[in-house]
Amino acid sequence: MGQPMAIAQTGVDENEITRLFNEAAAIYSDQDNPGSPPLNAISNTVETNSDRLVDPFGRIIGCDGNVFDSYEGFTVGLYEATGVTGSDLGPLVTLPNASAADIISLGNQNVNANNDNPFSLGLTDGLDPSQRGQFNFLLTPDQVTPGSAYIIVISPPPESFLDARRIRISIIALQGDQLSYLATSLDGLPLGLDNTVPVGQQLTLEQGQNTAVVVFAFPGNADIPVCQSQSIRIEKTADRVTTEPGGFVIYRLNVTNLSTTTLNNVEISDRLPFGFTLLEDSVQAVIGDQPADLTTTADGRNITFRFNEGLPGGTPPSNNPLARIVYATEVTPDAIRGDGRNFALASGGRADSNFVVNDGPVVFRVNIREGLLSDLGTLIGRVFVDKNFDGEQQYGEPGVPNAVVFLQNGNRIVTDRDGLFSVANVRPGWHVGVLDLTSVPGYTMAPNPYVLRSETQSREARLEPGGLARMNFAVTPVAEDLTKDQGEKLDGGGK
């Protein structure tokens, strides 16, 4: 009783029926891209020359393909389809009383002799094993006119931990002795245990004798699952709801197996907010209380976590162990330009039916406030040889590498090979830089006839919050001391 359900075509003696050829219009969904539009396909036609009602019964089985130990508490009902889209549940359909002739025409496959609606599947527990879990309904020709629509509802007992399933039946055409209708899954699950079975299928079959009621059972040659409508759930939280550049945010991902079977190949796709960077060494994962083997792949803001082991499932699903992932991110100044929103999706595959299950996206938002780093600015500058003494560097005036500039707070700055320097994350306000002439031997401050203060070793710059300020130092080679040279010559000549 702990397994999901499915409707399956029952087998009958080949001598009792004629061969059917199926015309089907199918609607397929891309499992890797849940938001993509469905695809349509068509196959061949159902025809039969039998004089009696065609009776392709439905049968409810588990998602693993096996029948239940007992069908007590399981019901199948046929309802009117209402609403704008025809997917809302209306009242129960009033079915005709089945006459003895109709029952005989159905053969020994009939399990709903009184044409009850809803039909209790517990009545099939005492039948032949091949008929346990089967159901069928009969409708009058007036109830199968083109445009009519019904919804089959399969309801499991509450203690089975299974979810109800709904399948919409749309009558397409009634021409002569042939009835065509479209069966569509309303929950997105395939109509069969094989993922290749469409979520919608159009069939045409024999209605039987003109004076008899029309058989109405779910057709098809495939098992039709009625598994848990949601087999996986993902939740995302963080250790804070507000942060600022330079801070850290710890995220937590909780993945819950809501099914009664193991979920394999569970993968979480996580997109970090703009300006957030994953600290890969911080990633940890557990299943229950045990460490889990997890593969992490980072591609910019896109992070993929993949469990290398299945998430256990059983009955009841509430006892399934919780899978958790914890990781830390660093908040960069770029985060101010983002919205702080994080998106995560989870996907996996059921071990019993191989169905692809998914959940999400879940969204968690961290508010980004303009903290200290948002007020900090950048100081830039250069030390260069000023050949024309105008205080500005022009083409042909080289930079001086390895020159040292001291700021008023004691910070020591060294120029690069081009004589350039920059200091990031500087507090706003007035700043003073002093060129250490001992770091540029053979040079002195260049004279400037236009701005006298440029001849000093110090420069002042006012830095606005989040702004950029510059301080340049112009130097020139030291002229030889001619007086000293002449003195040396005189001393030598006196000797």
Task: Categorize the overall geometry.
Answer: elongated
Count, helices? 3
Instruction: Give the overall pLDDT as a whole number.
Output: 77
Number of strands: 35
Integer tally of domains: 3
Helix content: under 10%
| Terminal residue distance | 122 Å
Low-confidence stretches: 1-31, 35-57, 103-108, 207-222
What distinguishing features does this structure have?
single chain, 495 residues, Immunoglobulin-like, 3 domains, seven-stranded antiparallel β-sheet, five-stranded antiparallel β-sheet, 35 strands, disordered N terminus
What is this structure's SSE topology?
Elements: E1 5-7, E2 25-28, E3 39-42, E4 58-62, E5 75-82, E6 88-92, H1 100-106, E7 119-120, E8 134-135, E9 137-139, E10 149-155, E11 165-175, E12 178-185, E13 200-206, E14 214-216, E15 224-226, E16 232-238, E17 242-243, E18 248-257, E19 263-271, E20 276-287, E21 290-291, E22 294-299, E23 302-307, E24 323-331, E25 341-350, E26 356-365, E27 367-368, H2 372-375, E28 377-385, E29 404-407, E30 412-414, E31 420-426, E32 429-436, E33 443-445, E34 458-463, E35 468-477, H3 482-494
Parallel strand pairs: 17-27, 28-35
Antiparallel strand pairs: 1-4, 1-15, 2-3, 4-8, 5-6, 5-7, 5-10, 9-14, 10-11, 11-12, 12-13, 16-18, 18-24, 19-23, 19-25, 20-21, 20-24, 22-23, 25-26, 28-31, 29-30, 29-32, 32-34, 33-35
